[in-house]
Amino acid sequence: MHTRIIGIDLARTAPHKAVVLDQTSNHFVSKLLKFRTDPAAIDRVLAAARADAPDDVHLMAVLEATGMAWYSVGMYLQRQGVDVYRVNGQQVADLRRVYQRHAKSDRIDARVLARLPLSCPENLHRCPFPSAPQMALQRACREADRLTDDIAASKNRLLATDQFAWLGLSDITPPYEDAAFWLRAHWYHPWRVVEAGEAAIATAWRAASPQQPADTSWIPFLIRRAQQVIALYGAADCVPYAHLQASLYREQQRIRTTEADLHSLRLETVRPLYRQLHPQRYLETLQGVGQDSAAIYIAFIGDISRFPSLRDFRGWSGMTPFSRQSGEAQARGLRITKAGPNLIKATAFLNAGVARQWDPQIAAVYYKQMVVHGKHYLQALCACATHLLDRIYAVLREDRPYQLCDVDGTPITKHEARRICQEQYHVPDEVRRRNNYRQRKARKERQVERHYNRRKQNS
Question: Which pTM does this prediction carry?
């Protein structure tokens, strides 16, 4: 079949650029075409691609993921019968250095995109256009992640302010409970706390506390801490406590509002869409995967059949290490790639921390990485996350619930699995201390020193 390839360099505000490559002759058959995200303008590009070509010409479009412009242009092209391929920007940048090392332009980028199907066809995959519910779930999951980050940032600001203004409050009362929030809003000035005394603060807390009866056991410790702060700073005007109290009040209001928004988003959007797209809810049979985590996997994975093999799925997820091999030498311990959605990698990492405590097969991976190979805790969890993603692929591919098994493949119950993890794959504390960053760095330095001394003796 006669094929022509349209390389499209998308832009956010400027016109898009496109060139047409004839696959048979390996020559460009059009000049640089400029067009906007408009059906009539895209039709002119398609007419230029079909010019002087057989009636049954097959059109391919290769475009880079630039903002959300790829979705608008790609969706219309797909509706016109064009096979659309979306590629990673880093891949285009690497090939552009080969194509034109000392120059960069929209024309060169469009030509590089058009030549990608000829230079590395095995690395190109059809662009998956999510359905409306899947796109809504993707955006809701990303929004929930942003809200979670905002809450964590606000809480960190509270702790940082408490640390210098009150030498820390977490040893007096839990920093994110009602007592700490009330204290920051009404009694953040140490001089006022000492002046009012224990009885007055206890009375005010009983009046304001939602608990009945209110716990006032923390107030004597607060008085002693206020006296320590006064002894440290000496004068009341050294620290702007009135300003800090007003600022922390606003910060706490933001936390409450954001937490309410996050709860509403998950309850009204994320979970209903997830149950619509994955009514069987088989992913939740995996240890460590709850419905919010399963929603993230469903939102970004989409149709599992677009990954022909487990290797393709692993490469997409990005939870695989770089490969460096030459001759008989094989580098080990390389960092993981940056492919795949960051939210997938982060969720798999967090889920793996729970899965290793309940799934003996994943617990065995963690134990081997820590005890046998001497890996750091984070490296061992990354290995567990990779195995957890393998199970997610199998569950979605086979459309069945996950069965907990021992390392020999024997089906077991959840309670048996937990017992096996605790008894057979518990990592001793001395191993954790041995594998921490300082110890690993010291061992590396000793290895380098021994290697240097051997070379010096041999010379």
Answer: 0.86
| Cβ pair 92, 104 in contact under 8 A | no
- The DSSP secondary-structure symbol of 270 reads I
H helices present in 278-355, as ranges? 291-301, 310-317, 342-355
- Determine how many CB atoms are found less than 10 A away from the CB of residue 70: 19
Q: Which tokens go with 303? A: 């149709």
| Number of residues that this document lists for the chain | 459
Tell me the three-class secondary structure of 18-78, residue by residue: EEEEECCCCEECCCCEEECCCHHHHHHHHHHHHCCCCCCCEEEEEEECCCCHHHHHHHHHH
Euclidean distance between CA atoms 371 and 316, whole angstroms: 29
Tokens 């320590």 label which residue? Answer: 228
Q: Is the dihedral of CA 392, 398, 402, 408 positive or negative?
A: negative
Query: Which CATH entry fits the domain spanning 3-123: 2.60.120.830, 3.30.420.140, 3.40.190.10, 1.10.3720.10?
Result: 3.30.420.140
3-state SS, residue 87: strand
pLDDT in tens, 202-255: 999 999 887 777 889 999 999 999 999 999 998 888 899 999 999 999 999 999
Of the candidates 139, 117, 105, 144, which has an alpha carbon nearest to the alpha carbon of residue 63?
A: 117
Among candidates 339, 389, 335, 338, which has minimal Cα distance to 365? Answer: 389
